[in-house]
């Protein structure tokens, strides 16, 4: 008998996460402790519980720019090698506890230099934390080094991605406010990465519309789209029928992965509600959709909770959740043979076991 997954059951499923920001997933207790150790005095709330509530409240403004302001405090306490390694280690622990077997976690090295670290020292500290996390919790975490789109260090960061790609850095990304900062400003970095046969994703179609997506794909050559929610603007819906515009059709035909983050997309104003999130239509139209957390602290979420919200909103069952998960693993920036090992050796067997152990039948 097919069953509707519960949150408890979903936590046991072997999941894959492609879009998660290291500085958006700190434990509030860790922020407080790191602030005390480093002398950071700008926290808006001094205790962990109050700080958690502050982050979640500040993230619900409906503005991407306001949402991004919350990172001042997490980045502020991540300015030493010890802090970066600790945060990465705890990230691995938290993701593993949520049933995630493979994750790609991104961060911007250029934002962690205030304490005197070099870009290389930042990267190595984060890699150390995730390496220890893999040893202790069994989770494989690849990192994406991110360049800030309003700055001018993208070539340096791209070179870091290539230099450390055999040590755990699996790709490159650009992030930050989209409006006024098109991805083409960093075209030299993307062309360099392509020449080096390196992988990269681009935040696009979250705070800005179709031009951002078009540039990311056709000018910059992105392997994946961070969010890509506004691709919905190129789809006309008439009842059960949908007509895809040229760009939407291209994205679907080329199987370009969309790294969607439902809760975060609502917080930043990219979607109105879970029930109205474009992910429902895009899944029905068989786009390469993946489900992600974006910033677990700011959104007060986990990947299991994101899946549970989709189950509630769209009536999804285990087959749907496995489809999203296989999509994510197919789209990961690790070699093909490793993706197959995860899909055939971990994900499919794990979901097969869970499909018949839920608590209530699907309607």
Write the layout of secondary structure elements.
Layout: E1 3-4, H1 7-12, E2 15-21, H2 28-38, H3 48-58, H4 64-69, H5 71-76, H6 81-97, E3 100-107, H7 119-137, E4 140-148, H8 154-163, E5 169-175, H9 187-195, E6 201-204, H10 210-219, E7 224-227, E8 235-238, E9 241-244, H11 246-253, E10 258-260, H12 262-267, H13 279-284, E11 289-291, H14 296-299, H15 303-314, H16 318-330, H17 336-354, E12 360-361
Parallel strand pairs: 2-3, 3-4, 4-5, 6-7, 7-10, 10-11
Antiparallel strand pairs: 1-12, 8-9
What does this structure look like?
Keywords: Hydrolase, Metal-binding, Nucleotide metabolism, Zinc. Pfam families: A_deaminase. Catalyzes the hydrolytic deamination of adenosine and 2-deoxyadenosine. Helices cover 48% and strands 16% of the residues. It is of the alpha/beta class and 363 residues long. The chain has one domain: Metal-dependent hydrolases (TIM Barrel, Alpha-Beta Barrel). A hairpin with a 2-residue loop joins strand 8 (235-238) and strand 9 (241-244).
CATH topology assignment: TIM Barrel
Distance between the termini: 11 Å
Annotation, overall tally of beta strands: 12
Q: What's the alpha carbon Rg, rounded to whole Å?
A: 19 Å
Helical stretch tally? 17
Shape: globular
* Uncertain parts: 359-363
Question: Can you summarize the main beta sheet?
Answer: 4 strands, parallel
So, CATH architecture? Alpha-Beta Barrel
Strand content: 15-25%
Overall average residue pLDDT: 94
SS class: alpha/beta
